Amino acid sequence: MSLYSAAEEPCALLVFRRDADPEELKTLVPGATPGSQQCVGLRVALLAAHLASDLEVPNPAVESMLRRLLTALAVRVSGLDLADQDAWEEHFDALVAAGRFDAEAVNAYFDTWQNRFDLYDPRRPLLQDPRLAEECSRQASPAKLVMPRPSGANQPWLDRTHQDEPVDSTEALGWLLAWRGFGPAGLGGQRCHGGVTTKSMKAAPLRSLVSFHPLGENLFTSLLLGCPPPDGDTDPVEDLAPWERDDLEDPLSPAPAKGPVSLLTGRTSHHLLLAPDATGAQAVGFWVAWGSRADLPAARDPFVVDRAKGGPVRASWRRSLLRDFDAFVHAKDPSAAGIKGQVLPAWLSVFADLPEDVLGRLGPVRVRALGCHQDKQDKDEHWYAVTTPASIAPFLPAHHPQRAARVAQLRLAAEMAGAAMAKALRAAWKQMAPGEKSCPWADEATAEYWDRAEPLFWGAITHDEAPTPAFRGLALDIFDATTRPAATTVQGLHPIAQARARLTHPRTGKKKVA
To answer: How many other CB atoms sit within 10 Å of the CB of residue 409?
Structure first.
């Protein structure tokens, strides 16, 4: 008997569209009404995806991993687990036309794998390793599972929940996903497996990274657009999710991803095992230990920005999303946005290739950024989630070259004004405090600049007749406000005036000699 099946038990909070068909909604989700929210199992999340506007998830790491899980399931139930590019594109177009996942395919898949979605199955618990109960020294407290909660010697700055307080099974599933993607390096339970005994754990593959997900008018569109196209190495026979495999994950020899499903669900450096209460309603403890002794086989996650040098782009909560919108628009030719040596998320390129009539059927599609500004160790600095106010389609250069050029122009103007302001502040500070290496003004002023530049940028690109924003004037206002306390002092008067003059009258190049 299943204690908690993620396929059926409420584990994904859906926000239903206000224009959803009330009769269809009531049939699929009893008690739900258009515009309401309701927590559903993974099966119903796919069956009702076309009726839901989106997911509602309180933590960005959990949301990012839940989107990956649902995308992998969407690949399977939609039949987009194909190796041939032409066949994939043809089937993708048919799904766009259908506007929903096929109910028979969804039910057939979950009926086939019903037992493997049990969170507490003693032999094959979902996305867990049951061997940990025998191979690990001891359980960790429930608090360690929930990353923001204090545990062990950590100080309870943000959450005063007792570390032995059990975790609701729905929440435990979310944090199980988050650990697999974003878990820290450091010490876990001492695990003895295959002659290797250690507590040391490597950082999870997505730790410290930012993911960029498609956000359509409904959850079906968001998941469909997120389905990765074939990359030339896809092997449909070997491309299996952990719950579809006959064997458990091998921590001494992690299997390489063979396609989108294994890529989205199978890559982890941590193995976990939840301990339920008698009813399965809560997790009362868990084991966490190393899930890989070697580096994971190289793979390119379909939602991160990869770089030729330096690896994937790291998360930074201070980075304004407007600075990346130009790249999203020019996904087919990143060099047009001044980007070199980067590979953008695969779905952006697929989206840019769609004919205008297909783009019209899909409706507005925005970009949702999810990340955690963190280091590799056990220190979570700042979770963040942000969505572009504007849709991408109206700015694609293939259909709207003038709008695309305006996006590039305004993004560059905003970048130049912000950089000039930070440079002026550093120059003034360096003269005032020549022995100090860092400038306390620059970081705070830059954060304020981008906060205030955002509405100027989005307003200017979404209205064709809007005037060009005065980014340089905004930079000057913030410079003045930041330096005002020191501007009239003997120490600051001259350096600040000099730096302000350079900001007000930037040099555009050397004068030509007649």
So the answer is: 14
